[in-house]
């Protein structure tokens, strides 16, 4: 049998056929064999997926999961890490691994976490990315690759989709693709930290920045005693990012409106103002994180006129505003019709921030992993992320407005993750995304209305909220505490839909997050309400 290195050589089983093709196409037998293998592998994948789409499968069965786990190679096995060759490996992937993966991108009825789906055109583009394996790090458009230009074009389409240039005085010239909103939040906090210290640093002889000096020396030189992050119900990744950039979890401070009350996701602007003033007196610098899309409720930290006020406070106290808009910022791409006016109001003014994090792999419906970062402070971004002393990494076009991606974000070598976004935006356009997002919101509101009106369930966070406050997440619980305790399991064991659990005000709750391009409002609402109705009536019978 073929060894691993010889697996594609003329010793493989179909050598005679491939040699003939090779002669005709003027390719080596090995090259033809690669093509043959990949073409067949792709056909086989599409067939396997078609079968699963027919079943609308949301999750693998427990048996498929156990079988896959027991099939994983173990160091104790005699043949551990001996070459199987590509054919046998592909057989293994199809028989064991694929059946044990969930159907989050294959079904419109997977409502766990916030995952989004994958538009077919984005999947096709992602296969191009893998096949051509571009390393998008240095901007070399004249003689190397167009990839950095495509990336820049994709980012300018995203910024237009999100209407970030609404305020013509601001230019979002520093922008990049990251691995996700967590990475974008980390990049945002790294820039914020650099800026709030830089803005207080006296001119020093060598013009050293915090990036040069390091956090501790820069704070000493700037007379900064501490750095705090003011926010409301921030996503866990903000705490993680605070730790990574050396500020610490404890730096994150909640300034919720009406704390413990009905709207804990809202930022209390009066409290922010008081905190800024007090901080200023004790040489504490401040970063403000606006949570545009709270992960349990989908609600927003700000309302219509909050952002201009926040901007002027930040300017007065040299604070940086970062928006965590992982999924919420896409409210700005909804149709501008009455149905969505209140969501547009929630997302208004976010373009007044200093930096913005968004996710591509959630509501843009491109494959993992894909995050987006925008800032309007190229000087700060460059200070933090520039690779110093690397002549071999300099770009040819120093006059270009496109920065080399390796000097804008965390990674140097990078995947061409712009291409699926580029393809999806070209294909769907502004109208296509507006329609897609509207469908998600309409399905979520349909379910919100159902749980609000039902006797068995309670719509959270408040049954008195207007339906128009619902974006694409529905939070609810069963009124019967015994059913509520097992509600997530009951829903998921129907295998018709998949939801994830959370806790709201100390009690279990269900989150149903709609995020796929596959949504069909009537069809999907019928399935969801039927599942919930039958669970509620079975529970009342068993009492
Ligand atoms: C999902 C999410 C994140 C984290 O994003 P990843 O893509 O998982 O890195 C951060 N903030 C919010 C509000 C989110 O919904």
Automatic annotation (TrEMBL):
It comes from Diplogelasinospora grovesii. The keyword Transmembrane does not apply. Residues 1-15 have a biased composition (Low complexity). Its cofactor is pyridoxal 5'-phosphate. Pfam families: Pyridoxal_deC. This is L-2,4-diaminobutyrate decarboxylase. Belongs to the group II decarboxylase family. Keywords: Lyase, Pyridoxal phosphate.
